[in-house]
Design brief:
The structure is a homodimer. By secondary structure, the first copy, chain A, is an alpha/beta fold. Helix content of chain A is 29%, strand content 26%.
């Protein structure tokens, strides 16, 4: 039976097409009927022609939905459960998963396109988490952020060792950067400096807990961060973009002995000799969503955080092309697609 | 009045010469009559022609000795005290010192050659620590290691987040690498894998707490480390050399989600994109000796650790040239010079 799903054909060309309905292939698989999915900043690398698209492929890696079928070996979720899963699946049992490195699971990987009406989830037991009950519709955007951006912002803060009393600067005012602001504030940072030039994003950063906004970029931006941090730079910098300029901005904004948490897909090198001489830590990568999911689901479910505010555009799945355009043109911070 | 001190003239040419006796220049200075000093692996970069020597300069940055004169502002040490100081001086009061980044003190720096009979110590209050009393001669080598190598090995382990139960691999079997083995064992690592091909160093590593020795290098060495660590690599790798091959060895030997502590002076880049995709932390730099000195002095003074075992050659200061030759030719792990 066919379903509808997004396929990227080439830069600038994402279409909803009829695709084969997913089916259980392994006993550890589950099938999820998507309730909501969204477009990620990382999807834009291909959309903008900055990463190759050798052939048309299904796209998307964020989702919440309802389990419609579970393989014979699946124990932790049941048909009918409302579930969230990370942007990578993981078995939860390998030595790396047990050490909290679920994004690097020995038997994990990606999906066959989550901007779709249904998705096959490998390693369902290690990947999916059921909500405590049927969520109110108003919670769904925030739950959806746990599939990637909120956990990724959280990972930036964890990777940079953010804790009570610290000064934190966030490079990047996309959805991940805004979630990183929220994460740093939740972790008790005393100063949370959001680097953003756009009024709507500045407002959201402030709502998420930013204590200062720096609109300047590059050297001027780093100088402003130093002005705000006893002249030396922030204890922690959360790099949520990945471009070379953002990475260098992070290095210029952190104090000696400080820590950089990196979650933006890396494009461009880092000055590792400077990191050494200034005793700066560099840590991060793809977020181990499953490591954070229980804690963050609780924060969302109990209304302590509302990361879903990053969605400033909601469209039906069939309008996926407009979702990409709006994000590419920066008309939207992040676009949610109702499936 | 003249004193004797080592001067490097060019690669391969270190001589003891008569130099002017140091004098108090600032009220925060102290003068230390050197009891013992030593040659550092990092001194060999210049000795081997791998770092430039534009003109003859005094050399050496490790010392223990007795305070012979203290500036008017010095409060924490007194004339007659036996003292240890780190290889960089630091004021102890700037914002970076207060955050534990004393190696990056805003008002700190190096010395005018510590392989000498006497040394001017700027920032004496923030730099020098007095021993609880006059040390037994047998303790002096271990106390001397606190000026650099033992604290540097400790910094590698701290930077890599070593803690109880972890698997740790140490790249480099020089004095710093051996001290890093000792540090990891002290911190409760369950596995401490020393990478070394030389029997004498293997024995010392074992005495310092290594649980396994890997003699292989490069890919074969990393494969052996993985064999010893559930197939995935060590939780933490301590990189104590600095060459590109040692740095790549560290990356190849660490598990995804693990941490690399770097203390070898960096020569060559790091594959930062691989660090990202594998979620590997990179942290380290010049050791903030003062941050560790109280704790490590206590461990040495009470006989809990004996890092002075790294000195396998002791010479009078006048034989400094032989000390460099012996280390350059790897006849000695580390040479102590009695002043």
């Amino acid at each position: 039976m066919p379903m509808r799903g997004a396929v990227i054909h080439r830069a600038g060309d994402v279409r909803v097409e009829e695709r084969e309905d997913p089916a259980i292939l392994e006993a550890s698989d589950a099938i999820v009927r998507t309730v909501a999915t969204c477009v990620c900043g990382s999807d834009l690398w291909r959309y903008r022609g900055l990463a190759p698209v050798p052939e048309p492929v299904p796209i998307g890696h964020e989702y919440v939905g309802v389990v419609t079928e579970a393989g014979a070996a699946v124990r932790s979720v049941q048909v009918g459960d409302f579930v969230i899963g990370g942007f990578l699946h993981s078995d939860g049992t390998c030595v790396l998963c047990r050490k909290g490195a679920q994004a690097n699971c020995l038997h994990g990987g990606g999906y066959d396109g989550c901007q779709a009406e249904a998705i096959r989830i490998p390693n369902a037991d290690g990947t999916l988490v059921s909500t405590p009950g049927e969520p109110d519709a108003v919670l769904i955007p925030s739950l959806l952020t746990l599939s990637d951006v909120m956990c990724t912002g959280w990972h930036a803060a964890v990777s940079a060792g953010v804790g009570p009393g610290m000064s934190v600067a966030v490079v990047g005012d996309g959805a991940v950067g805004l979630c990183a602001v929220l994460a740093a504030a939740q972790m008790g940072a005393e100063q949370v400096i959001a680097m953003s030039r756009r009024a709507a994003r500045q407002r959201l950063a402030t709502a998420f807990g930013a204590t200062a906004i720096v609109a300047e970029r590059d050297d001027a931006g780093a100088a402003r961060v130093r002005d705000l941090t006893s002249g030396v730079g922030a204890d922690a910098v959360l790099e949520c973009v990945g471009t070379e300029s953002a990475r260098l901005q992070a290095v210029a904004s952190v104090r000696a002995g400080g820590q950089i948490g990196v979650v933006g897909l890396p494009h461009g090198e880092m000055p590792t000799a400077e990191l050494f001489w200034r005793n700066i830590a560099l840590r991060g990568g793809p977020a181990p969503v499953r490591a954070y999911l229980d804690q963050l689901l609780d924060l969302v479910w109990t209304g302590q955080i509302e990361p879903g505010a990053v969605f400033d555009l909601e469209l039906p799945l069939v309008d996926v092309a407009e979702a990409y355009r709006a994000m590419d043109e920066r008309r939207a911070i992040k676009a949610l697609l109702w499936a």
